[in-house]
Amino acid sequence: MAHNQSQIPAPVQAKLRFLQEAMKRDGLSALLFYSTGQLSMLEVNPVLWLSGVLPMGPNAGVLLTDSCDATMLISLSWDQGRVRRQTWIHEVRVAERFADAVQELVQQKSVQGKVGIVGWAFMPAALYQSLQRVLDGRVEVADPILNTLARFPGQESLPALQRAAELADSGFSAILQKAKIGMPEYELAAEVEYAMRSQGAEDNFGMVTASDHSHCTHPPADRRIQPGDIIIAEITPAIEGHFVQLCRTAVMGPASPLLREKFTILEEAMEKSLAQVRVGKKAGAISRVMNEVFTAHGYEKYCRPPYMRVRGHGLGFLSLPFSEIVDENEA
């Protein structure tokens, strides 16, 4: 089905132009954007990236021809209403047998050449082999196309990112307001989740740990909060497919002088590392500055495995995860 360009959002039009050029360059007649329906904050979801819809069900896809004619395939018939409301793609089909549906669509759209699969890295081997069979081997891996285009989320994403950051702050506020002695970790985590979900968060990756000497964050368990505990929280809400992560701590009761002393070291490392977050700066400089501060205070060995893996990482979903923040990173 042909699309009225005036009805397609400008950011999507820019994506389509790039994809059309990429197909011409790589000798492809169509692209199949694929998702298993499993979502990760550390990966770009190809179907969400192109369609604007969080996929559900075992298989979802968008077939985009070299003329930019798009059709979306979904697994769940009862999900059609949600998908049609949220996507710019007019043609939405239910595919009970995904490979057969792709074959039928390719024939109907008169796709004669090769079909590039975007999302091949997530595709089950059995499904890939089925597509190879029904399309007579005219299938190629096309993940690099998305890896190039999805590296930056774009100016249009800023409102969603700002809103996600605000929700993360509300999640931490829930810890300050709701944490109490005797409460299990999982109950506090639920309060954080509720605070953000009730304000529109689509998703959240969260870990809440309470301990007097925590060695690492972990999923909330049934340990009950005790006086003097340090609560460490990873709070990661999503809005419009964009995740923002907030990592903060709270203390149950007065903070000891020793704790304040160590926290001051962390603040120093954070302030000095933020000065390195500038256009043109290398990611490794951020990590090196942090580690220099800790080394100066006698914690050099804790800047390396097995105590510390990375100083930070990027988040994906609608943009590629930024390289890990380690000394050796020259990105």
Main pleated sheet: 6 strands, mixed
How many DSSP H or I helices? 10
| Termini separation | 42 Å
Question: Any idea what the radius of gyration is?
Answer: 23 Å
Question: How many domains is the backbone divided into?
Answer: 3
The number of strands is 10
Instruction: Give the overall average pLDDT.
Output: 91
**Under CATH, the topology of the largest domain is which?**
Creatine Amidinohydrolase, Chain A, domain 1
Index terms:
alpha/beta; 10 helices; Creatine Amidinohydrolase, Chain A, domain 1; 3 domains; Creatine Amidinohydrolase; 6-stranded mixed β-sheet; 10 strands; 4-stranded antiparallel β-sheet; 331 residues
Q: What this model shows, in words?
A:
α9 packs antiparallel against α10 (283-296). Helices cover 37% and strands 18% of the residues. It is of the alpha/beta class and 331 residues long. It has helices at 10-26, 46-51, 80-86, 98-108, 125-134, 143-149, 158-178, 185-197, 257-274, 283-296, and strands spanning 28-35, 60-65, 70-74, 91-94, 114-118, 139-141, 203-211, 230-239, 242-243, 246-251. It is built from ten helices and ten strands. The strands form two sheets. The chain has a six-stranded mixed sheet, sandwiched between helices. Strands 7, 8, 9 and 10 form a four-stranded antiparallel sheet that branches.
